[in-house]
């Protein structure tokens, strides 16, 4: 399912316009992105938690030359599923 399918499904099931649903989804994604960028965590009880994690620096290898390269520490987004989501998938 992609974003367009999600918008269509929500609009159809809830009797809303696609434009209204798209506005809400875009707003939700923007708020989650802003929160993660500022180092905050977004927790939706039962669904899951969006957070950032530090990935430590390491030494990698260039596959073309075999030369060692230094890969710096970075921050990556992460999602941890909540209990209700896990149960629904089982």
Describe it for me?
The structure is a single chain. By secondary structure, this protein is α+β, with helices and mostly antiparallel strands. 43% of the residues lie in helices and 30% in strands. The protein contains three helices and five strands. The protein has a three-stranded antiparallel beta sheet with strand order 1-2-5. Strands 3-4 form a two-stranded antiparallel ribbon. α1 crosses α2. The longest helix is centred in the first third of the chain and has 20 residues, at 18-37. The chain is elongated, with a radius of gyration of 19 Å. The model has no long low-confidence stretch (mean pLDDT 96).
Q: Are there runs of 5+ residues with pLDDT below 50, and where?
A: none
Sheet with the most strands, sense and barrel status: 3 strands, antiparallel
Count of helices?
A: 3
Helix content: 40-55%
- Give the topology string: H per helix, E per strand: HHEEEEEH
Q: How much is the average pLDDT?
A: 96
- C-alpha Rg, in Å? 19 Å
Strand content: 25-35%
Amino- and carboxy-terminal Cα gap: 19 Å
Cross-sheet strand order for the largest sheet: 1-2-5
Q: Which structural class fits the helix and strand makeup?
A: alpha+beta
Shape: elongated
Q: What's the total number of strands?
A: 5
